[in-house]
Amino acid sequence: NAGVTQTPKFQVLKTGQSMTLQCAQDMNHNSMYWYRQDPGMGLRLIYYSASEGTTDKGEVPNGYNVSRLNKREFSLRLESAAPSQTSVYFCASSEVLRIQPQHFGDGTRLSIL
Amino acid sequence: GENVEQHPSTLSVQEGDSAVIKCTYSDSASNYFPWYKQELGKRPQLIIDIRSNVGEKKDQRIAVTLNKTAKHFSLHITETQPEDSAVYFCAASTRGSTLGRLYFGRGTQLTVWP
Fold this sequence. Notes:
Chain A is an all-beta fold. Chain A has strands at 4-7, 10-13, 19-25, 31-38, 42-49, 56-57, 64-68, 74-78, 87-94, 103-104, 108-112. The model of chain A has no long low-confidence stretch (mean pLDDT 92).
């Protein structure tokens, strides 16, 4: 089992460019999440998907969109990248939404110039 | 929403000593409290969790205590080793929210000196 797989691992963008971060899990989990991690800020929730077909905003959703493509895959899109979106992005999944541990991917290090 | 505060932000201990990291939360409806360890450049990994119907939980050198009345929970690492050096995050999940989503503290950088 690979667990939670994120692609790409590293990316450099120019301001205004768009890109999609991919996430897939093979644990048959229902819930998936996207976080960003900035120095001294901990993990902040961007968007989540309680189950296939549903998505909701988290703490810092502005500038992002998500798609729950199927039960396995949950993508994060930056439509017009800004330097403030330079961060490490983590995808996570859990069996169900409530009171369950979350399993994280290896992260995507994104730099926006 | 929930607010989780974590202290200290940095902690240095000598190998073999104990380390304690403390977190407070604001929402009395929170009922699940995981702790994650993140080594440099790696993913956060769950090391222990506790639910609100339990006051203490141990797993070898790691223990977590929960005081629901005071709304705080702590991570205790005994007999620390250099490989315990990492950033530790506490989190809380509140059943009062629409989701039971996790709210994270800002992390504690633990350094264990040999």
